[in-house]
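Onboarding guide, step 5: your first structure request.
Type a short instruction followed by the sequence, for example:

Predict the 3D structure of this protein.
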Amino acid sequence: MKKIKIAPSFLSADFSKAGVEMEQITLNGADFVHLDVMDGSFVKNISFGPKFIKEIRPYSKAIFDVHLMIVNPWNYIKQFADAGADIITVHYEACGDKLAETLKAIKDLGVKCGVVINPDTPVEKIADVVELCDMILLMSVYPGFGGQKFIPDVLPKIEQARKLIEKSGKDIDLEIDGGITKENVKLVKDAGANVIVAGSTVFNEKDRAKIIKDLREI
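The system replies with structure tokens like these:
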């Protein structure tokens, strides 16, 4: 089993003190920082863009895990790579037949790449691009807003994705995002996930070092 990595979702942070939040979450043990980029079109919410990521990049040495929930993501990947992304993930649902091309373009920029699928998208849809990926991200809520409840039907999909990864023989992270709490984190880990995105679960706690430690240990 790959090392468990905790990726607090910065969407739940206090943006009025973004630099401090970023610095503290890193000092408190975050392995990755999950950065949700939303355009108001692919999902019904708007968050931030490459300028914001570039401005907070100096406050952390953690892996910047940039999740693009945007239409035509291939038009923007260079901006996010230049802003400091360490890994860029794009949605199968947003890319269609340009998915493989988009993943290759990300890699060509010297950045790790990954594919994301929504809760209702079958894992088989991404089988032909697994070997191009450094990460597979499964949404356990419908993307767009933080604080949603975990969808248990995603658990068998985690197992399916882990089997695809093992079949590929590649060193690929399997990330889960949406509604992760201390009560269900062991379920997703046992199903095969090794990168755990947690937004409100982490940022709503005063002792963030403890909650990150607890999630990793559970």
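Each response can be followed by summary notes, for example: DSSP finds nine helices and eight strands in the chain.
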